[in-house]
């Protein structure tokens, strides 16, 4: 049986963004390393910060909704005082019959339920689950006694979405009803105005003015008359600028010619020995003809 080469499997670490051999020794060596542990802690801290930020945004949205509901309730109570619609009139009649005021009207309390646990299950990028405390922003790998699982969180989200959809439907119905009421009021106002116009005697209509249509007649001089151009004298304005005094030219420099004096050197004697002059040889092939000699 022939042998064949088989490549070794490799594993990718999502925290360190690197590849290594997929065996127990390499995996344990990598996971026990300082760099891997630091990257895991960094990833967990980023997840906790992200979840805390989302929780704060959710709290802010809930506070805004509560403020909007309180403002809507205050406006509704104001409308009830003013007998704006049929429901407010019925409420005022009930209050007058019972002899109580608006301050005594209290919404029935909902049945008290147990507070939900503060721990929630969260999935990391590699699929492992850890637990996050929504109150203290603590994270742990160990499962606490009471926590909200991911399935329960999804159910709660679905419930909240259904409640929001119901609220939106109710708001749309209220808006449609309000538009109908406004339309009815406008029609009633128009009908009243028509009845008033019929009751009041109409004044005679003013005579109609007839206007000539078409272009206007052209003027003889559309651009006006000619006027001569007069050159007005220009006034000299004193800008009060600093005056610059004229600089005097430098005095002329007289250059005297340089006088060169030559000194004579006289040789009185050439010594006691007889003077001989060496004769130059031009036919020497070994000597360079362009070489400078001592005689020159």
UniProtKB/TrEMBL annotation:
Lineage start? Eukaryota, Metazoa, Ecdysozoa, Arthropoda, Hexapoda
Q: State the CDD domains in the record.
A: WW
Give a GO biological-process term: mRNA splicing, via spliceosome
* UniProt name for this protein: WW domain-binding protein 4
Return the Basic residues bias intervals: 278-290
Q: In what ranges is there compositional bias, type Basic and acidic residues?
A: 197-211
GO MF term set = RNA binding; zinc ion binding
Q: Which Pfam families match?
A: WW, zf-U1
Provide one Gene Ontology cellular component: precatalytic spliceosome
Identify the residues that the record assigns to the WW domain, covering every copy: 113-146
């Amino acid at each position: 049986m022939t042998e064949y080469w088989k490549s070794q499997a490799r594993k990718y670490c999502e925290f360190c963004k690197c590849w290594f051999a997929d065996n127990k020794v390499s995996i344990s060596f990598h996971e026990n390393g300082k760099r891997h542990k630091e990257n895991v802690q960094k990833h967990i801290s980023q997840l906790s910060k992200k979840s805390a930020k989302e929780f704060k945004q959710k709290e802010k949205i809930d506070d805004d909704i509560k403020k909007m509901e309180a403002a809507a309730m205050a406006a509704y109570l104001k409308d009830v005082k003013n007998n704006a619609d049929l429901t407010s009139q019925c409420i005022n009649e009930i209050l007058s019959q019972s002899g109580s005021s608006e301050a005594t009207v209290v919404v029935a309390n909902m049945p008290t339920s147990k507070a939900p646990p503060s721990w929630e299950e969260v999935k990391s990028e590699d699929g492992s689950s850890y637990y996050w405390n929504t109150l203290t922003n603590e994270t742990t790998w160990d499962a606490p006694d009471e926590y909200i699982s991911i399935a329960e969180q999804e159910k709660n989200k679905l419930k909240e979405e259904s409640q929001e959809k119901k609220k939106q439907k109710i708001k749309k119905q209220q808006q449609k009803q309000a538009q109908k009421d406004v339309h009815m009021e406008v029609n009633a106002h128009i009908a009243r105005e028509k009845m008033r116009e019929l009751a009041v005697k109409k004044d005679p209509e003013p005579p109609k003015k007839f206007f000539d249509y078409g272009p206007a007649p052209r003027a003889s001089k559309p651009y006006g008359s000619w006027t001569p151009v007069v050159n007005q004298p220009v006034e000299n304005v004193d800008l009060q600028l600093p005056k610059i005094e004229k600089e005097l030219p430098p005095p002329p420099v007289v250059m005297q010619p340089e006088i060169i004096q030559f000194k004579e050197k006289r040789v009185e004697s050439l010594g006691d020995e007889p003077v001989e002059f060496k004769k130059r040889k031009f036919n020497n092939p070994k000597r360079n003809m362009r070489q400078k000699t001592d005689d020159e």
